[in-house]
Design goal:
six-stranded parallel beta sheet; 6 helices; globular; Rossmann fold; 6 strands; alpha/beta; 140 residues
Length: 140
C-alpha cells in the first residue's frame, strides 16, 4: 500500500463543480500538490489562484498524478473521462490510484474498476457527503 501524504503524492482532480471544487480546495488547504481539470476552464481559475496547477486536458492530468480524483455528474461524463485512447486510464501509469466520487450507477463503477485493473490501476468508489465539519478543520 502506498503512503499518500501531502509532501509525497501528486493529486489530479477532474470535475470542479459544486462538490468537486470544494473538495479540491480542501486538498489545497492541506498542502497537497494538485493539478486540476474541468471542461469549463473558468472553474479552475479560483483553484489555480490558490496554488493548483491547471491541466490542458485529461491525459496531461493523468500522466502527472499519483492519485486521480473525479467528481462528475453522471455515467456518461465518467465514461468520457476514463475510457478511450485519450481518457485518463490510457494516460495513467500502472500503480496510479483513482478515487471515483461521481454520481454514477454501480454498473458504471464496476466497468471503470475492471478496465483500470487490466492496466494496473486501482479504482475505489468513494461516497461523499455535502456536510462540512466546522469544528474539525483537519478532517477532509
Amino acid at each position: 500500500m502506498k503512503l499518500l501524504v501531502a509532501k509525497r503524492v501528486k493529486l489530479g482532480f477532474i470535475g470542479l463543480g459544486n462538490m468537486g471544487s470544494r473538495i479540491a480546495q480542501r486538498l489545497l488547504d492541506h498542502a497537497y500538490e494538485l493539478t486540476v481539470f474541468d471542461l469549463d476552464n473558468t472553474k479552475a481559475e479560483a483553484l489555480v489562484l490558490n496554488g493548483a496547477v491547471p491541466a490542458n486536458d485529461i491525459a496531461e492530468l493523468a500522466q502527472s498524478a499519483d492519485v486521480i480524483l473525479s467528481c462528475l455528474t453522471n455515467d456518461d461524463a465518467v465514461h468520457n473521462v476514463y475510457a478511450g485512447s485519450d481518457g485518463a486510464l490510457a494516460a495513467a501509469r500502472p500503480g496510479t490510484v483513482v478515487l471515483e466520487m461521481s454520481t454514477i450507477s454501480p454498473a458504471s463503477s464496476r466497468e471503470v474498476h475492471d478496465q483500470a485493473a487490466k492496466l494496473g490501476i486501482d479504482v475505489m468508489d468513494v461516497s461523499r457527503s455535502g456536510i462540512r465539519s466546522t469544528s474539525s478543520p483537519e478532517i477532509l
